[in-house]
Amino acid sequence: MDFDLSEDQLALRDGARELLDGVSPPEAVRAVLEAGGGRHDGIWSAMVEQGWLGVAVAEADGGLGFGTVELAVLLAEIGRHATPVPFASTVLAIDGLVRAGRTDDAARLVAGDAVGTVAWSARADAVRAREEGGAWRLDGRADPTLYAPSAALALVVASTPDGPALFRVDLEATGRPAAEPAIDRTRELGWLDFTGTPAERLGGADAVEALLDRGALFASAEMLGGAERVLELTVEYAKDRVQFGRAIGSFQAIKHKCADMLVDVEGMRSTVFWAAWCIGADDPDASVAASTAKVWSADASKRVMADGLQIHGGIGFTWEHDLHLFLKRAQLDQLTFGDAAFHRARLAALLRPRVAAGTGVI
């Protein structure tokens, strides 16, 4: 059995890397930071032109007709370049809209005519939905939401008397929040506050779980790309930095740290693409795989960033070095759509019935 990416998927990865090497070098990312952070319109236009937003959308719906694995490939490359674009939030919104039958909204996002976002909260009752005369309204405050300040519409997870449900909110009509200062300045972040806000119900608990699976996977894929790049930067630095007349990469302690980083990155790769395959194939273990990927990636990303920072020493703490771009971005991704503790608890809940029944957990 072949566990590697296919030739077509490797070609997609190489093509995406070549494109982003050209349009999203560190200089372009820093230009966005100096302008206040958020989004690089030139990079975004290049992605739209390449059809990236529709990579996992069926051709009949205006997409490229690929799958979740291909989407994870693109997300990893975006993470590798710390690209300042609303790609993950928009493709997640597209997926939720397509599954809800809102192909008109999805087509608008696929075409790049608008940005989408998804508001999810670790606390189940952070946003509450109530029905009044056949219409739904939302109250409460969601967790900080990526690209809420520039999104045209948001998919919002809210609690109802019948359990969690997924809603659509027209931010062009209700108003967008202001951008909030955040440690990761490569992406916009905002608070979505709801007070009797009109909303349209798109689905119930199944739609919410599917959204959480994909959100956890997308954040994990971006962390994979960032960790992979930090490993490369660290190895390059260890080869070049001379101390006591020798490259520091020749010291056993440095070798061990770099080896640990490699193990973590390869573990992230395995769990991310397992989760991507399970989700794309509608495998019964999709939720287990998604939470496993988020647990491993969140923990491993912390270790990779910490070891990379330690090996770089003083230069790694400076604004001039690119390491901080990935470290800060990873810290946000570690929390997005549930941190490692949340997904450990979710895994326990998913696997407990199997253990009670005496069957295997995987």
Descriptive account of the structure:
The chain has 362 residues and is α+β, with helices and mostly antiparallel strands. The chain has 3 domains: 7-88 and 103-112, Orthogonal Bundle (Butyryl-Coa Dehydrogenase, subunit A, domain 1); 117-203, Butyryl-CoA Dehydrogenase, subunit A, domain 2 (Beta Barrel), CATH 2.40.110; 208-355, Up-down Bundle (Butyryl-CoA Dehydrogenase, subunit A, domain 3), CATH 1.20.140.10. It is 54% helix and 14% strand. The chain has 12 helices and 10 strands. The chain has helices spanning 7-23, 26-34, 41-50, 68-81, 87-99, 103-110, 171-174, 205-240, 252-280, 286-312, 323-333, 340-357, and strands at residues 116-119, 127-132, 135-141, 145-146, 153-160, 163-170, 189-190, 193-203, 242-243, 246-247. The strands form 3 sheets. Strands 1-5-6-8-3-2 form a 6-stranded mixed beta sheet, with helices on both faces. Strands 4-7 form a two-stranded antiparallel sheet. Helix 4 (68-81) runs antiparallel to helix 9 (252-280), helix 5 packs antiparallel against helix 8 (205-240) and helix 8 (205-240) runs parallel beside helix 10 (286-312). The radius of gyration is 21 Å and the shape is globular. The two termini are 18 Å apart. The model has no long low-confidence stretch (mean pLDDT 94).
